[in-house]
Amino acid sequence: MKKVVLSQTIHPDGMAALAEAPVHLVALQSDRPTSRETLAANMADCDILISMPGDCIDRALIEAAPKLKLIAQHAVGYDNIDTDAAAERGIVVTNTPGAVTEATAEMTFALMLAVARRIGEGETLLRNGLFFGWHPMQLLGIDLFGATLGIVGYGRIGRAVAQRAEAFGMKVVYHGRDNGMPLDALLGRSDIVSLHCPLNRETHHLMNRTRLAQMKQGALLINTARGPIIDESALVEALEQNHLGGVGLDVFEREPKVHPGLLNFRNVVATPHQGTSTWGTRKRMASRVMDNVSAFLAGKKPPNQVV
Length: 307
Description:
Blueprint: E1 2-6, H1 12-20, E2 23-27, H2 36-43, E3 48-51, H3 59-63, E4 70-73, H4 83-89, E5 92-94, H5 101-116, H6 119-127, E6 148-152, H7 156-167, E7 171-175, H8 183-189, E8 192-195, H9 209-214, E9 219-223, H10 232-240, E10 244-249, E11 268-270, H11 279-297
Parallel strand pairs: 1-2, 1-3, 3-4, 4-5, 6-7, 6-8, 8-9, 9-10, 10-11
Helix pairs in contact: 1-11, 5-7
């Protein structure tokens, strides 16, 4: 019987499916990412690992698991996995595409609206007893209607964001890997820039000091993709210089740590990587994971194999 290590508890439907599967399940239940030491100890003789974005599955960890044959990532992104090391060992890697699209697009707009309409500042004012009645110049924000939204990364999530933007009466421009306008042109034209590209060698610190400076004065920056796409030190500098009108972040460069400078600005809305945190999305993610695991156990190619 194959040993399956689950690095964190998933949706109850997924847990039930794993319990019924013909495997020896080791569920490392935790409300935070499993420590490297615990993961390594349990992976030493495992056949299948169900991993989370917070697990650093690097070469050393892979080489220390000689029986490992499948890494089923419980996410669409898999930048936390050393896919080169996995490929060299013939280890299959899968993800959960499509399951997170709508929730991430919704979270993008939640952040966009929160920053543009200064929701966080307004709630803080009210909770601190400083709301004295309507005032014509209180907490003025910016309109989404008529604004130009620049989408960086035009895959499933980028296109879902574009659909919502059109419903808001926004003008949409985009930069994709093989299509759309050049990134420099998009940055100079957009009132709001939203990041939806995967994290890889090319996109690490894509938004660096130079590119942040190319954004329009007072523009907003939203990131629900991966934290290291933005150089957070450069972002803090841009905020200190009042170059940006506001920032909405659901992901961070050194998660779970957040650059302390970011929390000093009232026009920064930061959430704890909750873009896919809905019951429906987690259920779909668990279902995709089980589809991949079940196919692998049956000797078939998993439907969402990326390596």
